[in-house]
Design brief:
The complex is a heterodimer. Chain A is an alpha/beta fold. Chain A has ten helices and twelve strands. Chain A has helices spanning 32-41, 56-72, 86-95, 104-108, 111-120, 153-163, 184-193, 207-215, 225-228, 234-243; strands spanning 5-13, 16-21, 24-28, 47-51, 77-80, 99-102, 125-134, 137-142, 147-152, 167-172, 198-201, 220-223. Chain A has an eight-stranded parallel barrel, surrounded by eight helices. By secondary structure, chain B is α/β, with parallel strands linked by helices. Chain B has helices at residues 13-22, 33-37, 50-59, 62-71, 81-84, 185-200, 203-206, and strands spanning 2-6, 26-30, 41-44, 75-79, 89-90, 95-96, 104-107, 116-124, 136-142, 144-146, 154-160, 163-170, 174-177. In chain B, strand 1, helix 1 and strand 2 (26-30) form a beta-alpha-beta unit. The mean pLDDT of chain B is 95.
């Protein structure tokens, strides 16, 4: 039986792990490859790197780090952030990323998802959707949540899959960083609308939060700070999920 | 064990090379048909779609080189799309493939969600040097698979929703896995070790 996935996420900048509040006061927190290897050994089913800087120099540093991750990490690694065009997606995949995650560039030009899926296969094209509650629904927001778009998040989810995205990484901007649990209603709405796997993101504060997201229909639950700060171990989360009857590796 | 890893632009080249080297493989990455044709063990990587893989192999003359390696007594092993191209045909783009194994590649319509993405059980259907470490849970990322191959070439199966597909296959000196051993943690490492043993196994042992 296909297992549900627990996915730790690392923010990276210039090929280094960084931590900060709202992308400010960034602190260097080490080598993302070493962190990914540790997570893999601790039972992570997949690892996401979110590149949070845009400079060309930082992009090259990211590619070098992805190459080392391809060689040293033995679980899949998804890389997103700054994937502006097919060329950048290609660079990440050839460096050894298993999947690329595309966000703002796809909102500007949805056909980018189709182009990437056509060239690389939809199984390695993830569309990241940042959603914020607004008047009883959700609005897709761009540029790390700073820029609202004209897209209803649920309609955008359907369109992204129609274009060729093979997976959706859905982040609740309302819950992100709060630690009060995922936006389960958002997870359920999106899961019911698309035939592809959905990764829930934004709001994990305890192991039961991740189990809740999986019970709501997400194939995978992503979390950053609870793993990074060592508050909870990946196996601890999996144990809670297993107790609830969820199929885990 | 010397391995020629076929370079036709597949994304998992680097990770697969590292995985084979970790277990002691002497890996040569090559897009040179002569190097591939002369290799005792040819590994065909792959991600994405079979039509693109077939076109890329043909553009470099590597499709012929893979056949030549077999004709010279070598062995061929495919990973993911690299497994799919070993069969007769793929419904993805409706393209002819290498035809080294009987069966076709079709969309996994019975899966709960597509792509079939994540960790799933690989269950052996008979003993073989390649399946010694099975059953195990391995990482998959694909929407198409071999569902109609005769039992004689199926070494292990995986269930995805109501669908069941061949996740490890082997014929005479031709074999492959639909999952990604390079991304399957300890289970993947065990498969890579078995792959290197398969290369040295006598035909009688391997059957």
């Amino acid at each position: 039986m296909l297992r549900r996935r627990i996915v730790p996420c690392l923010d990276v900048s210039g090929g280094r792990v960084v931590k900060g509040v709202n992308f400010l006061d960034l602190r260097d927190c080490g080598d993302p490859v070493e962190a990914a290897v540790r997570y893999a050994e601790a039972g992570a089913d997949e690892i996401v790197w979110l590149n949070i800087t845009a400079s060309g120099e930082d992009w090259l540093a990211l590619l070098r780090a992805v190459e080392r991750a391809a060689e040293q990490v033995d679980v899949p690694v998804t890389v997103g952030g700054g994937v502006d065009d097919v060329q950048r997606a290609r660079e990440l995949l050839l460096a050894g990323a298993d999947k690329v995650s595309i966000n703002t560039a796809a909102l500007r030009r949805p056909e980018l998802l189709a182009d990437a899926a056509e060239r690389f296969g939809s199984q390695c094209v993830v569309c990241a959707i940042d959603a914020r509650r607004e008047n009883g629904s959700w609005r897709a927001v761009a540029s790390g949540g700073r820029v609202p778009t004209g897209w209803d998040a649920l309609e955008w989810a359907s369109r992204a899959v129609a274009e060729g995205a093979g997976e959706l990484l859905v982040t609740s901007m309302d819950q992100d960083g709060v630690g009060g649990g995922y936006d389960l209603e958002l997870v359920r709405e999106i899961v019911s609308r698309v035939p592809v796997p959905v990764i829930a993101s934004g709001g994990a504060g305890s192991p039961s939060d991740l189990a809740d997201a999986l019970e709501a229909g997400a194939e995978a639950a992503l979390a950053a700070s609870i793993f990074h700060d060592g508050t909870h171990a990946i196996e601890e989360v999996k144990a809670v999920c297993r107790e609830r009857g969820l199929p885990m590796r | 064990v010397k391995v020629a890893l076929v370079d036709y632009g597949a994304g998992n080249l680097r990770s697969l090379r590292a995985a084979l080297e970790r277990v002691g493989g002497e890996v040569t990455v090559s897009d040179d048909p002569e190097v591939v044709a002369a290799s005792p063990l040819v590994v065909v990587p792959g991600v994405g779609a079979a039509p693109h893989a077939m076109a890329s192999l043909a553009a470099r003359g590597l499709d012929g080189a893979i056949r030549s390696a077999l004709d010279a007594g070598g062995r061929v092993f495919g990973v993911c799309v690299g497994l799919q191209v070993l069969f007769e045909r793929s419904a993805e783009g409706d393209v002819p493939c290498l035809g080294l194994l009987p069966g076709t590649v079709t969309r996994l319509e019975g899966a709960r969600r597509l792509p079939h993405m994540g960790w799933n059980d690989v269950v052996p259907t008979r003993p073989h040097v390649l399946t010694g470490a099975l059953p195990a849970t391995c990482y998959f990322a694909h929407s198409f698979a071999v569902q109609d191959a005769p039992d004689s070439v199926v070494l292990a199966r995986t269930a995805a929703g109501s669908a069941s597909f061949a996740s490890v296959v082997a014929g005479d000196r031709v074999a492959g896995v639909q999952f990604h051993p390079e991304r399957s943690a300890a289970a993947g490492r065990a498969l890579c070790e078995a792959l290197l043993r398969w290369e040295t196994a006598e035909a009688a042992d391997a059957a």
